[in-house]
Each structure stands twice: as structure tokens, then as C-alpha cells.
Specification:
By secondary structure, this protein is mostly beta strands. The chain has one helix and eight strands; from the N terminus they run αββββββββ. The chain has an eight-stranded antiparallel beta barrel with strand order 1-2-3-4-5-6-7-8.
Length: 105
């Protein structure tokens, strides 16, 4: 069992929530809602009729949100007002960009 320490700040700090619309290549629009809590961040994106829940993972630059801790599956990368959606096949070492050139509207 994992027991996390509780502090007054973590008990009473409200997470910040922000929704951003992105215009991407192929005319696709992505709605991304970011939830930033004291100890974890998440992105819920709605793209082409599908809703994806992603957790923030470590990245060298920008913010990376993935379906799994190792980055496999859907990955949403943001940096400033730009973003892209990819599919990472970690076991086979391949990545496919699904939507690129996404810009915040």
C-alpha cells in the first residue's frame, strides 16, 4: 500500500483547470482540458469524436501527456501555443504523428 504524505497545502489547494482549442492540420480541431494539481497534471483531449485521458510524463522540452507511464499509446505534446498528437509503439520503437501543426485558437 502506498501512503502519500498530506500537507495543509495539498489538502486545500484547488487544482487549476484550463481548456484550450487547437486548430491542426487536415482541418482537425482538438479540445484539450488541462488539470494541474499540486502533485500531478493531466490532459483530457477530445479529437475526431474520441475522448482521451492522458497523464503528464517526463519530457526534455515542452509538456508531454501519455496514456501510460512509459509513453506508449496516444501522446499529446505541447510547447507554448503549439501541439501535436502521436501514437507511440514503445515495444517496437516506432512513433507515428497523427495530427501535427496544432495551434491554440
Amino acid at each position: 500500500m502506498l501512503i502519500l504524505p498530506l500537507t495543509a497545502a495539498s489538502l486545500f489547494a484547488a487544482p487549476s483547470i484550463q481548456t484550450v482549442q487547437y486548430q491542426c492540420d487536415r482541418g482537425a480541431v482538438v479540445s484539450a482540458t488541462y488539470l494541474n494539481a499540486a502533485d500531478q497534471s493531466f490532459a483530457v483531449i477530445f479529437v475526431e469524436g474520441q475522448q482521451l485521458g492522458l497523464a503528464h510524463v517526463i519530457s526534455a522540452s515542452g509538456a508531454k501527456y501519455a496514456q501510460t507511464p512509459d509513453g506508449a499509446g496516444y501522446v499529446w505534446w505541447t510547447k507554448g501555443d503549439e501541439a501535436f498528437l502521436a501514437w507511440d509503439d514503445v515495444p517496437n520503437g516506432s512513433e507515428e504523428t497523427l495530427l501535427s501543426q496544432c495551434h491554440a485558437m
